[in-house]
Write a structure and sequence with these properties.
The chain is mainly α and 245 residues long. It has a single domain, classed as Glycerol uptake facilitator protein (Up-down Bundle). It contains 10 helices and no strands. It is globular, with a radius of gyration of 18 Å. The protein starts with a helix and ends with a helix. 49% of the residues are buried.
């Protein structure tokens, strides 16, 4: 169990450090102009989150299953793929890994040029938000819906590609690309959560306004994960077995 918890800590650390770090340091870059942008933008941030989970799954998935996300842990437990009694330990390891990741991003940003850290915090430190804190100004309802829907889709994909009849060798690639797609869809809406550990880790440095909205980015992914896990368990897994017979 110690090895499994360490793997979850490391995988979540990589996800937050890589994804949030890309958003803070590389999404835009000083000296860029409209005709010659130097930052990686939304596409680069989306790829960064997808790549971090892909790398984490191939590096540590054989040890812990490669959850790196409390919502995934809850969804897999609901879907009968993970023991509920092990969920608390996994979630604690994920939360700690995420907080360590964002704390190190904060420490690096503190050594940036004058005003860099202040600007990063004023912009929310890559935190999630709705209403005035949404990148595109989307409402609470829009944020709630997209986070529930996309987390459910994420869990459905994970359960599908990791099933005994699935292409397990390509599971990390499929999961990483799905997370990239999820970010491409929802960065303008909420800055993309689908992961309470990632949301908590960033909001700690985003300020009071983002912390006040954090409840949605804990609740909505968990609801979506429960839906995804239950739908796969009840509607897809059993039918797949029947089709094989």
């Amino acid at each position: 169990m110690i090895a499994r918890l360490l793997a979850e800590f490391l995988g979540t650390f990589i996800l937050v450090f890589g994804g949030v770090g890309t958003a803070i340091f590389a999404a835009s870059f000083p000296g860029a102009d409209a005709g010659n942008p130097l930052g990686v933008g939304f596409l680069g941030v989306a790829l960064a989150f997808g790549l971090t989970v892909l790398v984490g799954i191939y590096a540590f998935g054989h040890i812990s299953g490669g959850h790196f996300n409390p919502a995934v842990t809850v969804g897999l437990a609901c879907g009968g793929r993970f023991r509920w009694k092990d969920s608390v330990g996994y979630i604690v390891a994920q939360l700690v890994g995420g907080i360590v990741g964002s704390s190190l991003v904060f420490a690096i940003a503190a050594g940036g040029p004058d005003g860099f850290l202040a600007a990063a915090q004023e912009s929310g430190f890559a935190s999630n938000g709705y209403g005035d804190l949404s990148p595109g100004g989307f409402s609470l309802l829009s944020a709630l819906l997209i986070e529930i829907i996309l987390t459910a889709v994420f869990v459905l994909v994970i359960m599908g590609v990791t099933e005994s009849r699935g292409a397990k060798a390509f599971a990390g690639l499929a999961i990483g690309l799905t997370l990239t797609l999820i970010h491409l869809i929802s960065i303008p809406v909420t800055n993309t959560s689908v992961n309470p550990a990632r949301s908590i880790a960033a909001a700690l440095y985003g300020g009071a306004d983002y912390l006040a909205q954090l409840w949605l980015f804990i609740l909505a992914p968990l609801i979506g994960a429960l839906i995804g896990g239950m739908v796969y368990r009840l509607a897809l897994e059993s039918r797949g077995r029947q089709a094989v017979r």
